[in-house]
Amino acid sequence: MSISKFILTKVLGWHYKYDIPEDLNKFIILAAPHTSIWDFAFGFFYCRAQGKKLHVMIKKESFFFPVGGLLKAMGGFPMDRENPQATMMRLIHEFENNDSYILAICPEGTRKPVHKWKTGYHTIATHAGVPVYMGYFDYAAKEVGLLPEPVEITADARKDTDRIQERYKEMNLTALHPEGYVTE
């Protein structure tokens, strides 16, 4: 058992149902519901338990000394909220120039309640030619996971995102802070 799996399952008491396929090395994970910084930790240990390195978009303001170095070492990728197009182009470049790149994106874009999710993941996936999977956190069940099939991406980012958001709603997930997760 890896140290990450030990921490996730024995120390933190969480589990997961779905393994990440060994040959799946480039993809985007949508991570929801996102209401806590703890979501990063559970996603990190979930991927590391399976030998995968996860990259996560985190607001650039979080990358201050000494925390910034730790975040980068753990796969943090600074998100410039004032220039999201530049960030997306850098991420597309990362996919194109690496044999393995797994990017987690919280489509809510914040830990606060959001009714309409962001579509930046769609742009990145389309331009980089990578699949999108639905990752999830369920604090009631103490489960973190990745659904086994990629979501269908069409030319309509808004329609795809609304469909994905509805599918998350149907999963009846419990966020750490339920008041921050809008399901209507």
In short:
The chain is of the alpha/beta class and 184 residues long. The chain has helices at 3-11, 38-48, 67-73, 84-96, 120-128, 157-170, and strands spanning 26-32, 54-59, 76-79, 101-105, 132-138, 143-146. The chain has one domain (3-177).
What does this structure look like?
With 184 residues, the chain is α/β, with parallel strands linked by helices. It has one domain (3-177). Helix content is 34%, strand content 18%. Helix 1 (3-11) crosses helix 2 and helix 4 packs parallel to helix 5 (120-128). It starts with a helix and ends in a 14-residue tail after the last helix. 33% of the residues are buried.
> Percent of residues in helical segments?
25-40%
Strand order of the largest sheet: 3-2-4-1-5-6
- What's the number of helices? 6
Major sheet, described briefly? 6 strands, mixed
What's the Cα radius of gyration?
A: 15 Å
- Average pLDDT: 93
Order of helices and strands: HEHEHEHEHEEH
Assembly type of the chains comes to single chain
Low-confidence stretches: none
Structural class: alpha/beta
Task: State which percent range the strand residues make up.
Answer: 15-25%
Shape: globular
Would you count the extended β strands for me? 6
Total number of domains: 1
Calculate the terminal CA-CA distance, rounded to whole Å. Answer: 40 Å
